[in-house]
Task: inverse folding
């Protein structure tokens, strides 16, 4: 056995052990009692909108239609150059629960901070202007704040339908990330990202922190770390379902992931003083090292492992390394299957896992490398507004049964959005 074989075996065993641990923790999360949806605090939803004429109305409608919580909505137009201000003003005129504010363009963090002084409720929820939430989401999120130790709650974010192979890959990625990784992270108390598409915060804590920071490109991760640093719990709420419009073209996905990765680099740098510091608790000892190892290091090493495994298979070498590699592929498919079952979506998409793994690992490695070079050269990565095609509703029954609990603990049917086709 060569030294390279030994390294590959070590990495494969590490991934197998991680998979087993994630399964155990996710199963424990499923069995853990959920907070009761009784005497819920009122909720304010903040929506920052920049050139969101395509999807803003759908987003606001999905929030107002949620029967599970008393809700008010604050929409902040961040200097849009399309019809967003006109749509926002009309929505506010039609429903007294909606407040509409305009400001010069200052970025998403600035827009959300503009809304924060108008919040009068105990719980505040952020919903991206290109997203839609399922019935029951607000009540499920709000119920977690009956525990005074909870500072933030992350919802279950999914891509808005499956329009092509790239969206399907993202679908598997999102569901696996939410229903395995997020559940496991919740059990360990190491969630590092509350998503902008469906995330809730304790209003008093958000104000204490000073609102959203504009120091990084990933303001949601930045805020989550700041909350965890103050020893508040950050939890995952699988009953709170939000749908977001995914990039439909590879170049748009590249721009999105480059921004995400660059923002992660910024956050890691900003909170480097917490890294491996015992006084920082799980955040410094587990959460941040986990991001470093599995987000950065394995992000680069994983595609190299795949190339080596393919080389073994092409040469027809069925040795211990190859068997372990094949077991790892089977484990990946099994993990995806469990995640899809927990998310109550179509299980057959787990069969895409080998292709998704092979493609995505190379893609992620390129993103990590390019981001590292940009970061080291101190080259700024811009926000890069992605084009929108909007969300169109389709009956969930036509896709998959996805019941969600509303505030009265009744099962309601979710409308799953899907991307509209580009005009020919």
Result:
């Amino acid at each position: 056995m060569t030294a390279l074989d030994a390294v590959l075996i070590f990495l494969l065993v590490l991934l197998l052990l991680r998979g087993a641990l994630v399964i155990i923790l996710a199963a424990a999360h499923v069995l853990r009692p959920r907070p009761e949806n009784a005497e819920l605090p009122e909720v304010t939803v903040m929506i920052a909108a920049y050139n969101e004429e395509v999807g803003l109305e759908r987003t606001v409608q999905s929030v107002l239609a949620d029967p599970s919580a008393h809700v008010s909505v604050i929409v902040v137009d961040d200097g849009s150059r399309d019809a967003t201000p006109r749509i926002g003003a009309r929505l506010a005129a039609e429903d007294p629960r909606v407040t509409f504010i305009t400001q010069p363009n200052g970025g998403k963090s600035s827009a959300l901070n503009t809304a924060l002084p108008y919040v009068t409720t105990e719980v505040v929820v952020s919903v991206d202007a290109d997203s839609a939430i399922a019935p029951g989401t607000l009540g499920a999120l709000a119920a977690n704040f009956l525990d005074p130790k909870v500072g933030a709650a992350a919802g279950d974010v999914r891509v808005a339908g499956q329009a092509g192979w790239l969206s399907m890959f993202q679908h598997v990625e999102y569901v696996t990330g939410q229903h395995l990784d997020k559940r496991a992270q919740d059990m360990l108390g190491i969630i590092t990202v509350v998503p902008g598409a469906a995330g809730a915060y304790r209003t008093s804590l958000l104000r204490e922190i000073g609102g959203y920071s504009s120091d990084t490109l990933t303001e949601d991760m930045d805020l989550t770390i700041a909350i965890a640093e103050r020893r508040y719990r950050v939890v995952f709420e699988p009953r709170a379902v939000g749908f977001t419009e995914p990039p439909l073209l590879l170049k748009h996905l590249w721009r999105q992931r480059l921004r995400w990765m660059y923002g992660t680099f910024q956050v890691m740098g900003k909170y480097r003083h917490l890294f491996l510091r015992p006084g920082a608790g799980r955040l410094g000892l587990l959460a941040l090292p986990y991001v470093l190892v599995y987000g950065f290091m394995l992000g680069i090493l994983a595609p190299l492992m795949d190339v080596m495994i393919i080389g073994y298979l092409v040469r027809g070498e069925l040795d211990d390394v190859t068997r372990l590699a094949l077991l790892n592929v089977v484990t990946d498919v099994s993990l995806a299957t469990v995640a899809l079952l927990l998310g109550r979506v179509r299980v057959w998409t787990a069969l895409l896992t080998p292709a998704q793994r092979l493609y995505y690992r190379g893609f992620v490695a390129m993103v990590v490398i390019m981001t590292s070079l940009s970061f080291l050269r101190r080259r700024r990565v811009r926000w890069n507004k992605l084009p929108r095609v909007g969300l169109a509703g389709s009956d969930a029954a036509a896709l998959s049964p996805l019941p969600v609990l509303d505030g009265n603990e009744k099962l309601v049917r979710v409308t799953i959005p899907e991307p509209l086709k580009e005009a020919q």
Remarks:
- Residues 3-27+279-376 form one domain.
- The first helix runs from residue 3 to 31.
- The chain has 13 helices and twelve strands.
